[in-house]
Each structure stands twice: as structure tokens, then as C-alpha cells.
Task: structure prediction
Amino acid sequence: MRLSRFLLGAVALLPELVLGQLSGKVGPTTTTATKTAKKKCSVLDYGAKADKTTDIGPPLTSAWAACKSGGVVVIPSGDYAMSTWVSLTKGAGVAIQLDGTIYRTGTAGGNMIFVQSSDDFELFSSTGKGAVQGNGYQIHAQGSRTGARILRLYKVTNFSVHDVVLVDAPAFHFSMDTCTNGEVYNMAIRGGDWGGLDGIDIWSNNIWIHDVEVTNKDECVTVKSPSKNILIENIYCNWSGGCALGSLGADTAISTVHYKNVYTQRSNQMMMIKSNGGSGYVEDVVFENFIGHGNAYSLDIDQYWSSMSAVAGGGVKLTNLTFTNWKGTEANGASRGPIKVVCADGAPCTEITIKDFAMWTEAGSKQMYSCRSGYGSGFCLKNSGSASYAATTSTVSAAPSGYSATSLGSDLKTAFGTTVSIPIPTIPASFYPGVAPYSKLAGN
Ligand SMILES: *[C@@H]1O[C@H](CO)[C@@H](O)[C@H](O)[C@H]1NC(C)=O
Ligand SMILES: *[C@@H]1O[C@H](CO)[C@@H](O)[C@H](O)[C@H]1NC(C)=O
Ligand SMILES: *[C@@H]1O[C@H](CO)[C@@H](O)[C@H](O)[C@H]1NC(C)=O
Result:
């Protein structure tokens, strides 16, 4: 509600600013208080026990059924086991208040908590301590990556997810697909140090994601196709794969995405756009205020991404992408320079702008910038033309002025690995240096 007011206020005051990114109001239509006043359905009244043994699956499904036409499903503080997954459908004006901790004990694939075809929905913790502990290490230690995603939202409209913690998913942590008008904020996600353990994946319309921390070794907060009107702010990739657009294939349709205030440390990249062949477009995207430390890649457009099998098509067309105010240091700029633009020869990038970009290497004393088939302004991009061109690489051996950027101070120094239990973190007080979260953290 505070948000709705904020956005409505912002729309009234600064229409161009808000409409340029989001297309309208995000978040639930009715307040938590309204829902609570209507009906409360505690899982304890439907057979749940905070004994870390009794399966919370069936009680949660029953509580949802009782409250899904208007009310709040309450999971009080305490430790619960989940051995069977829940598919929660057709809610309208319903919230799930997760104040306890749910520990995965089941081994099925799919989604532990799957919310679909619902409107005016909220998943939150009133204390900021609600968590799902996926115990993925028990599976990963066997060398296996099978198992469930923790949370999936599908065809959910007018919703929010906030102040909850997701830990050590067997597979992915949180995805939103085919959703509209959503807000996700004040979250910590902490997974194993492996690929396939994505933080947040979005392919949706009109979504605001802000104040989120992700630790893992795959997607931090990543936009997939189709998506439009996505605003992603105050993101802390604290030892992750890093944020990305992709991977992108046939008929890609991504537009009007804005990443702002993204702090990335010890990750694969600060931002990657990844594809190999394919078709369609990515257009009107801004990547603003990025700080990096100790990452392998920094700005990394790779339209011949070797981890993806080539798909049919001359390439996804990237147009009107702006990278501005990037600072910090990369791990080794001589082997992996801070600017790597590899556009598809079959669909050269156009209107790419790289400005106010100053990064320097942590190892050695030189770094390179490399561009292929990319047009626009800044560094190695060609200013005019439209034909494909081979990679051009320039090496610099002096640090650009103004590259130095602050650290968050509590950066993770070693990974959590994949074989031992990963502790449940607390949600951090800030996700980008000097910037307070938009909404006060719950329980503070
Ligand atoms: C979502 O909320 C908007 C008002 O902001 C409303 O117009 C729309 O109908 C709602 N969506 C659904 C599917 O009910
Ligand atoms: C480029 O994208 C930005 C950000 O979405 C947008 O404001 C601007 O209008 C776009 N420019 C063109 C020429 O479409
Ligand atoms: C980064 O991750 C490490 C390990 O989880 C944690 O100790 C540190 O507090 C995190 N930083 C913040 C700001 O949360």
C-alpha cells in the first residue's frame, strides 16, 4: 500500500521517470491488514506442527483452500518440515505470512511452493525471519543437481514477495513467469556454489525487484524472455554468478528493463547478455550505477556463448542499451577485460552506449576492451555502419581515473561450497553502498 501510494505519487509527479520503466502500479491491490481482518487461517489449525518432522504440505494446502478467497494463511514462528510440495491456485486477495522456517525433507523435483493463477497475492514474513531451508547440500554432496525449486509464481497478478529468506535450493530458488504487476523486495537468497542454483529468474511484465541479496554460483537477478517493464534496483550479488539477460533463443522479446545500483563481488560477471544464435530483440535497456570487485567478467555481451548450444537464427538483435556509471575492479583484466562486447555477426548490435565507465584490474597492470559487430558510442564500439566486423581489442596499461569504488564491507570471502549445510542468513541492512532499502525491513 505504501508502495502503491509511492508509485501513484511518482506517476503524478514524474510520469516519464516511472513510465519509462514500469508501466503502472505494482504490488497487491488490498493491504495485509484488510486481508487479516477478513480471515486468518493458521496452518496449526490444519494439522501442521512446529516439530520439524510433520509434513507441512497438506496443512498448507488446506489453509490455502480455506483462505484463498480472501484472508491470510499464517505459518507461525517455529520449525516445520516439508516432505510434499504444494500447488496453490486461484487465490484472490490472499496472503501467506511465513514467520517460521520450513525445512525441506522431501526429494521430489518440481516446486516446493508453487503459486499460480492468483490475483492480489502477498508472500511475506512479518518478522523478516521467515525462511525456507532447501537443504540442497544433501543432494549436491552426492554430485546430483536434481530436486526442487523453492518458489515459483506463475500467472500471478498484483502481488508482492518480501522479507523472506530462501536458502540452499536443490535446484533454483525463485522464478516468476508470466506474472504481471509484481513487487519483490527485502530478500536474502543463499545457495550452493554451483551452476543451476539460480537466485531470481523473471520472465514477466511490469515487475519491480529491489533490495535483494543473492549468494550462489549462477543467476543473481536475471531477466529472461519474454519480459517488459522490469525495474531492478539495489541488488547485492555477494559471491554469485551475477546478473544477466538470458540465455536468449528464438523469438526473444525483452524491452524496457532498467537495472540500477547493482553491487557485485566475486561473481562470474557484473552483467551478461548471453545467447548463441536465435532471433527477436532486446531493446531499451539501461544498466546504471554498477560496482564490481573481484569478478571474472564485468560488462559481458556474448552472443556466441559457448555454454549454450547454438539455436537457429542469425542472432538476437540488441538495440538501445546504455551502460552508465560503472566503477570498481575486475579480477584480471588482461585475460578477461572489463568490456567484452561480442555481438552476433548476423544481427549486429546498434545504439549501444558505454559511458562514465571506469574499471581497473586487480591482478597485473593492464586490461583489454574488446568489441565485435557492435555499434554505438564508447570504448571499442564502432560509431557508424551496420555490417558485422571481427573483434577488435585494445589494451590499456594505465588505470582510468575515478575507477575506485567502495566495498560493502561484509563481502563473503569464501564460498559455501555444495557439501555442507548452508546457514540461514539475516536480511542485510543495505544492498548497495550508501543506499537504504526503499521499504523498512520487517521486524526492524
Ligand atoms: C490488477 O490490478 C489492477 C489495478 O491496479 C486491475 O486493473 C487489474 O484488473 C488487476 N488484475 C487482475 C488480473 O485482476
Ligand atoms: C532507449 O531506451 C531508453 C530507456 O528505456 C528510452 O528512454 C529511450 O526512449 C530509448 N530510445 C529510443 C531512441 O528508443
Ligand atoms: C555476504 O555474505 C557473507 C556470507 O554469507 C555474509 O557474512 C555477509 O554478511 C554478506 N554481506 C551482507 C552485506 O549481507
